[in-house]
Fold this protein.
Amino acid sequence: MDNGDWGPIDGHEVEPLDVLFAKDPGRTERLSLGLGGIWFDWSKLPLDEILVGKFEALAEARGFAATREALFTGGIVNPSEGRPAGHVAERGSGSAEANAAAAATHVRMRALVDAIEAGAFGDVTGVLHIGIGGSALGPDLVIDALGREGSRYDVRILSNIDGQAFEDAVAGLDPHTTLVAAVSKTFTTIETLTNVSAALGWLSDAGVEDPFGRLIAITAAPEAAVEFGVDSTRVLPFAEAVGGRYSLWSTVGFSIALALGWPAFEELLEGASEVDRHFRFADGRANVPLMAAFGDLTITQLLGCETRAVFAYDERLRLLPSYLQQLEMESNGKLVTTDGEPVGRRTAPVTWGGVGTDAQHAVFQLLHQGSVVSPVEFVAVIEHEDGQDDTHHRQLLLNAFAQGAALMTGRTSDDGARAYPGNRPSATILLDRLDPRTLGALLAFYEHRVLANAVLLGINPFDQFGVELGKEMARAIDDPAERDRFDPSTRALIERAGL
Ligand code: F6P
C-alpha cells in the first residue's frame, strides 16, 4: 500500500456528533472501554462503526500486528537508528534477554536506594535531579503527581540551563544533606553537564568535602559519566535502546524510587505492564491505545485539526500536558516515512493544554467559539485525596463533563456573539483513583497510542533527528569563527546582546 493511500478512509463522510448520537443509542457503550482502572470515552469524537472498521483494515494493511510484536520481542522498531525500543523490557514486557538486562539494572538501582536509606551517604534530605527532556519530564510528573502525601526526600528537578532555574532549584536545599543525580542518556547534553558542574560548585562552596562523592550518574553512556568524574560504583546504567522520552521506567526513575519508595516504583511498572499485555494481545477496536489512535487520526486526517488540547482536571496531573508534549511531538512530529519518503499527510498535531478548571477561564473561549477547532482530551480522577470537603472535587469533575457537553452541543442564538457552533470533539479519560499503578497504566497507554499513530502513518516514533540541527547551531554560534555563516538577523541579535 502506498503510504499516502488510505483507501476508503479519506473519502469517509464525517457526520456531526448530534447525528451520530441520534442514530445510535448504544454509541457511548460502544465507544467506551476500561483498562487498568481507567475509563476511556471516545463517543464525543466523530468515530462510527464503519469508520472504526476502515481503520481496523488500515491497521492490518500497515502491518500493525507485526510492528507491535516486534516491539515486545526486541525487533528493530527504530529503523533509522537500527534499534529495538527498550522501554517495555523495563517493565518486564520485552524479550527474555532484554527483560533480564533491565532487571539487572533495577537491582543495582534498588541497592543504591537501599544504601541511601540505610545511611550510606549520611543524612540525606534532598535530591537534586538534573536532566532535561525525557531525563526530567517523566520523573517530574510522577513525583509531582504521587509525592504529595509527603515525599520521603525533597526532590528538585533542574532542567533549564538558565542560571535562574539553578538558583530556584537549590533554594532551601541543604548542600550537606543533598545528593545530586545527573540524568542524561547520552551524558553529552550541554544543559545537564553545565548544571551538574554548577551543582558540584555549589556543594564545594558550601564546604562539602567530596562533592563528586555526592554525585550519582544515570546514563546509557557509563563511560562518559566516568570520564566526567563520577565513580563507577555510582553510575546507574540503562540500555541504549530505551528512548529518552520513554525512560522513566528505567534507572531514570531513580528519583521516583527515592521519593515514593521502591514498592511504589514497582507498582508503577506493574500498572504499565498490565497495559503492555493488553496492547500486545487485544485486537482491533478492543485495543485501547489503537482505538485512541483511530480517534486521533479521525481528527487530524478527516477534520484537518492541527492541534490537540489535553486538560488535566486534577491538580496532581498538572504536569501531564508538558510530559505529553515531548512524548507526542518528539515522537510523531515527523515529515518522512520509515523509508525516508515524504509522509504526504499531517503527522502529530501540536499538543498543548493545561489544568481545569483554570483553563476554562483562560483559553476555553477559543475552544468554544474560535475559528480553529481543537479536539480536547479531559483527564480526570474519580477519587480525590485532598482533605477538603467533597464539594471541590464534585465541582471539578462536573465542570470537566459540562465542558465536553457544551463543546459538543453548542447553542444557537440570533446574536452571533452568543452563539456556540457545537460539534466540537472531545474525549474523556477517567481514572478510578490516582496511584502508582493507575499512573503507570495511563503513561503506558499514551506511549502505545503514539506507536499506534506512527504505524498507521508509516513513520518512526523512536528517533528525533529534528532536534540535532538546533543543537549543532547552538554550538557553532558560540564560536566567533563560525559566526559569519549565520544570517544578518541572528548576527545583529548577538551583537545587540553583547555576546
Ligand atoms: O534534544 C532532545 C533530547 O535528545 C531528548 O530526546 C532527550 O530526552 C533530551 O534531549 C535529553 O537527552 P539526554 O538524556 O541525552 O541528556
